[in-house]
Amino acid sequence: MRTLCASTLIGEFFVIGFAGLVAMKDPDLAMSTVWTVCGIGMLVSVLLCGVITRPGGVALGWVLQVALVASGFVVPMMFGLGLIFAVLWWASVHYGRVIDAAKAARASAPAA
Fold first, then answer.
1. What span, in angstroms and rounded, lies between the C-alpha atoms of 43 and 19?
2. In terms of C-beta density within 10 A (0-12 exposed, 13-18 middle, 19 or more buried), how is residue 22 classed?
3. The predicted structure's pLDDT at residue 1
4. What is d(CA 89, CA 100) in angstroms, rounded to the nearest whole number?
5. 52 Cβ contact list (under 8 Å, min separation 6)
6. CA distance to 3, 51, 69, 107, 112, per residue, from 104 (Å)
7. CB 52 within 8 A of CB 58
8. DSSP secondary-structure letter at 24?
């Protein structure tokens, strides 16, 4: 699960950075505000890569997904990208757990 989820989170790192570049063009937003929010989001996505297998890691990932979709109120394109990454996050968690269970079953099987 860790590899799939970390791949999704690193992809989000770049998407958040690019969204910051787009948001920077909005004259109503201060550049310092845009980069503070984007920097925090980028930092959270990288830090989550390390804690994804710990209790609450997946839930924090879902919080990041909600924040990514909500960022569409500032950069409308993020509604679509946030939804895509939310689906990718679900798939990473779901299929990652399936893969982890298959690995555990194989490891516990008697050697032939």
1. 15
2. middle
3. 87
4. 16
5. 1, 2, 5, 6, 9, 58, 61
6. 16, 20, 34, 5, 16
7. yes
8. T
The structure tokens listed for 98 are 């399936």
Q: How far apart are CA 61 and CA 39, in angstroms?
A: 16
Mean pLDDT by 10 residues, the chain (112 residues): 94 96 94 95 96 94 96 95 96 95 91 69
Question: What one-letter code names the amino acid at 29?
Answer: L
Secondary structure of 34-52 in HEC code, one letter for each residue: HHHHHHHHHHHHHHHHHHC
Contact between residue 65 and residue 75 where contact means Cβ atoms under 8 Å apart: no
1, two tokens: 């699960």
pLDDT number for residue 112:
64
pLDDT of residue 109: 85
Q: What is the pLDDT of residues 88-103, one digit of tens each?
A: 999 999 999 999 999 9
pLDDT at 86 (0 to 100): 97
